[in-house]
Write a structure and sequence with these properties.
The protein is built from 13 helices and 17 strands. The protein folds into 2 domains: 6-102, Nucleic acid-binding proteins (OB fold (Dihydrolipoamide Acetyltransferase, E2P)), CATH 2.40.50; 122-166 and 201-455, Bira Bifunctional Protein, Domain 2 (BirA Bifunctional Protein, domain 2, 2-Layer Sandwich), CATH 3.30.930. The radius of gyration is 26 Å and the shape is elongated. Helix 3 crosses helix 6 (250-271), helix 3 (125-147) crosses helix 7 and helix 6 (250-271) packs across helix 8. By secondary structure, the protein is α+β, with helices and mostly antiparallel strands. An 8-stranded mixed β-sheet has the order 6-9-10-15-14-13-12-11. The chain has a 5-stranded mixed β-barrel with strand order 1-2-3-5-4. Strands 7-8 form a two-stranded antiparallel ribbon. The chain is 30% helix and 25% strand. It binds 4-amino-1,4-dioxobutan-2-aminium adenosine-5'-monophosphate and magnesium ion. 4-amino-1,4-dioxobutan-2-aminium adenosine-5'-monophosphate (4AD) is lined by residues 163-164, 202, 204, 225, 227, 234-235, 238, 240, 242, 380-385, 424-426, 428, 430-431. The site of 4-amino-1,4-dioxobutan-2-aminium adenosine-5'-monophosphate (4AD) has 23 residues, from strand 10, strand 14, strand 15 and helix 13.
Length: 456
């Protein structure tokens, strides 16, 4: 269908006083005795194009005024009183009608209600803005890593190894639910792969394989977690960016995290001004200032041990105890990012017992060279580490956790053949989108959230 994007019509001055054809959906409408008005949106911009209908030219505009109708309008683009442009309709064609049971009528709906209509909620302004920001962030992530010669690799989604070792893997099977077997091995021997398989929780282990050949790689794809965490920050299927860098130690990894986050946030500041203004007004006052500060200030850095001291001294009554050796609870992470630092902060060098087997063991014998980046309002948006490059220490760590080395032969081989310090991190795209938009529930920044007890 020949037509012009509403974005172009509204942003390219050469359209002023020219005739154009636009297509879109009626978002709001107004009727009066001699005139009618439709705000048309085609998804190319958050802004609606006002269509001005003179009833002397278009006698019965009623069918075009129904919210949600798909229209094609030919008309002249003219300056409008608010400094933008509008279109004086010459002809209107109803491409797709929209009856009154269409749920997105004028009034503002809650995000909770909109979650119940995932096939329609994207037409609301909030989602128009969220998904453009998500798209721009994704493109900027590729630009950042491509610009630094990282190789984009596609790691498998079906895998036999549970990288994070937390037992949060979804099974992949073709066997019927009532199949009986004497042992687990026997059960899986008859299965499609002849062995136990699941959906990957992380592409890191395969990413390390690639980094040991290509030096610098990143993955960008879905990861799956069967965590029973019914929180505003967890989904069972999320998009995961995982860079892996050879000849790198923890400070190098931290440097890449900080510069990549700054790069992509800057891209959104430059490319999505309307969207950010919308979020600043409707979701998080001061959002744009926060993002401008993020790109110009250093992130905080604190060791886990120092963080525990800060939390112990805090003038706050935490629900969960603060003890060296324990995991940081959400309330602790919030305090560190929001109160103690007031900006994104790297917590480094966690106790080895609460972190994964593959992390580089520090000389103190107690901690590992790991880091989480905690962001105000969202909590952990990145988890990363230097990897254990020493064969003996890696095997020991696996043994301490009761892991079977047989399943990790390839991974272990990397420490036999040209091992080198290396490291990387995992960025949860949805958590970053939450931070950049001020949207508080992860279910509102992904097209179809998959969460415990519900597939929307
Ligand atoms: O901290 P995680 O579990 O680390 C890893 O998976 C490492 N293998 C990454 C690496 O070093 N290559 O996950 C990394 C990030 C988290 O910081 C979080 O942003 C996101 O992935 N994430 C989730 N996002 C949404 N819902 C979930 N259930 C998530 N689990 C992790
Ligand atoms: Mg983590």
């Amino acid at each position: 269908m020949k037509h012009t994007d509403i974005f172009d019509v509204m942003n390219d001055a050469s359209f002023v006083n020219a005739t154009a054809t636009v297509c879109g959906w009626a978002r709001t409408s107004r009727d009066s005795k001699t005139m009618a008005f439709v705000e048309l949106n085609d998804g190319t911009t958050l802004k609606h194009l006002q269509i001005v209908i003179d009833k002397e030219k278009i006698a019965n505009p009623a069918p075009f005024l129904k919210l949600g109708s798909a229209l094609r309008v030919v008309g002249q683009i003219v300056p409008s009183r608010n400094g933008s442009v509008e279109m004086n309709a010459e002809s209107i064609e109803l491409i797709g009608e929209c009856p009154s049971e269409y749920p997105l009528q004028k009034k503002r709906h809650t995000l909770e209600y909109l979650r119940t209509i995932p096939h329609l909620r994207l037409r609301a302004n909030t989602f128009n803005a969220v998904f453009r920001v998500r798209s721009v962030l994704s493109a900027a992530i590729h630009e950042f890593f491509q610009g630094r010669r990282y190789v984009y690799v596609h790691t498998p989604i079906v895998t036999a190894s549970d990288c994070e070792g937390a037992g949060e893997m979804f099974r992949v099977t073709t066997r019927p639910w009532n199949a009986e077997a004497k042992s687990e091995e026997e059960y899986y021997a008859d299965d499609f792969f002849g062995q136990k398989a699941g959906l990957s929780v992380s592409g890191q282990l395969e990413g390390e394989v690639a980094a040991m050949a290509f030096g610098k790689i990143y993955t960008f794809g879905p990861s799956f977690r069967a965590e029973c965490s019914n929180t505003p920050r967890h989904v069972a299927e999320f998009w995961h960016v995982e860079p892996e860098i050879a000849f790198a130690e923890l400070p190098d990894v931290i440097e890449v995290v900080e510069s990549s986050i700054k790069y992509v946030v800057k891209a959104v500041l430059e490319r999505c001004p309307n969207e950010l203004a919308f979020f600043d007004k409707n979701f998080e006052n001061g959002l744009i200032d926060k993002l401008n500060r993020l790109v110009s200030e250093d992130f905080g850095v604190v060791t886990y041990t120092e963080a525990i001291e800060i939390l112990k001294k805090a003038d706050v009554k935490f629900e969960f105890p603060v003890e060296w050796g324990g995991d940081l609870a959400t309330e602790h992470e919030k305090y560190l990012a929001e109160v103690a630092f007031g900006k994104p902060v790297f917590v480094t060098d966690y106790p080895k017992e609460i972190k994964s087997f593959y992390m580089k063991q520090n000389p103190d014998g107690k901690t590992v060279a790991a880091t989480d980046l905690l962001a105000p309002g969202v909590g952990e948006i990145i988890g990363g580490s230097e990897r254990e490059a020493d064969l003996g220490k890696l095997l020991q760590a696996m043994q301490d956790r009761g892991m079977s080395t047989a399943e990790y032969e390839n991974y272990i081989d990397l420490r036999r053949f040209g091992s080198t310090p290396h490291g990387g991190f995992g960025l949860g795209l949805e958590r970053l989108v939450m931070y950049v938009t001020g949207i508080e529930n992860i279910r509102d920044v992904i097209l179809y959230p998959r969460v415990v007890n519900k597939v929307y």
